């Protein structure tokens, strides 16, 4: 029984790792080798020149699009944590006459996935003149009703004694938040931050709509453009894919603890 | 008064953004949906409900809802059952538990674009050197044109396995978290009462205790399938356009509102409003079911 479990899991694990194997195999081989009629399991000789080919190919803005993706993901991660954290705390802890009105406006947006409203958002963002602009890529994604709602639920359960101690020390709401609440909530911030980073790095529809000039492409848009037009060779395309997932694999390995917590927090609201 | 200032200091920046980037677009798009607006985002000519009537009688639009239904009918139960099965297996073992969990979760690091690339150009490449066709070749079968063949529609196999691979780990983690919340004493009590360790405890303890998680997973899967865009666009689309089949709602909307055939924001907005109402209905249902 026990052996059977390990057998089933091992088969599933091998199947799950095949796509990663293919990315590496196809990205490090020569084109003749991967298009040969007989399957080669691993390139007979790893062709490191593929890296130089990819990064010096003038048609492929690999460096530029990676930098764009990184800037967008970092700004969106920290922007969301800042704005949604503050708002979540205000909604959870500061008594105010219209607090419930704002809360309902936030909750109402939870019913509408942002992807479904990409046309309306594009209309507004293009009116602001933010097409093919960093602002257009970053700013509309900052105001996540969902993240704010999660922060509010979290802060509702934050131990009040800690805040009261800060109050006695003469801190106001602002000081309490930054000096007591945030330092004691690092794990939660890290969990939501890692999720925000991964989501931002991998998002495709919005960058496709808004990043129309090549200079503003994120790495996903760049990959997609070359995939759908097949205008660069297959080997370079796979190597580019390998390069594009490297930052996230690093995040996955280094921050898995927070990632798992983040998935559990964002997946199910108890 | 003092509380009011503190409140807006915390909530103000977010509230303004929510207004500008969520509420204004929705309002504007409601407005545009009653107007003729081609290649412009300012309402041109008032047409009443005509855009809605056009959309609701437009065959491709209705077919896109059909495409979503077919896709959901495959991907939702398949992901649910496999994620649950793997979660149960991972949860039952001791040695290498973290390893298996990491392996199944790792695909989440890939974007749908990268997965599409692997599926389209390597696994399900229509020529002889694609992995699937290589394996078929070992058994003497002819290669199959996976992504372009419409009868039988092999592209569903490509799209469903792709999403299954990419999203399964996320739901696996949710199920494992749900399993770990089940109190151990329930199992001990059942064993004392003579329940067998396999099927009976699963049927009478594990599954009922996972009810909240299961409902949440089902609805998250459904909402995610509704928003499917990336893999369809990248596997089936090309710079020569998108094939007339397998267009889920967002693909349809993308080509209506922003496609090369001219930007039609009147119809695009009406479509967005209809799709928003549909998904809002499902989400409301989710709230009802979970809080019940």
> Average pLDDT across residues of chain A?
90
Strand content of chain B: under 5%
Intertermini distance of chain B: 38 Å
How would you describe the shape of chain B?
A: globular
CA radius of gyration of chain A? 23 Å
Taking all Cα atoms into account, the compactness measure Rg of chain B is 24 Å
Count every beta strand of chain A, where a strand is a DSSP E run of 2 or more residues: 0
Helical residues, percent of chain A = over 70%
Features:
A: mainly alpha; MetI-like fold; 2 domains; 15 helices; globular; B: 292 residues; mainly alpha; two-stranded antiparallel sheet
Q: Could you give a quick summary of the protein structure above?
A:
Chain A is an all-alpha fold. Chain A has 15 helices and no strands. The longest helix of chain A has 32 residues, at 62-93.
Any overview of this molecule?
The complex is a heterodimer of chains A (270) and B (292). Chain A is mostly helical. Chain A has helices at 2-28, 31-34, 49-56, 62-93, 99-109, 118-127, 134-138, 145-156, 160-168, 173-181, 186-202, 205-210, 219-229, 234-254, 256-267. Chain A folds into two domains: 1-47, no CATH class; 61-267, MetI-like (MetI-like fold), CATH 1.10.3720. Helix content of chain A is 72%, strand content 0%. Chain A starts with a helix and ends with a helix. With 292 residues, chain B is mainly alpha-helical. Chain B contains 13 helices and two strands, in the order αββαααααααααααα. Chain B has a two-stranded antiparallel ribbon. In chain B, helix 3 (59-92) packs across helix 12. Chain B is globular, with a radius of gyration of 24 Å. The model of chain B has no long low-confidence stretch (mean pLDDT 88). Chains A and B meet through helix 1, helix 4, helix 5, helix 6 and helix 10 of A and helix 1, helix 3, helix 4, helix 5 and helix 7 of B.
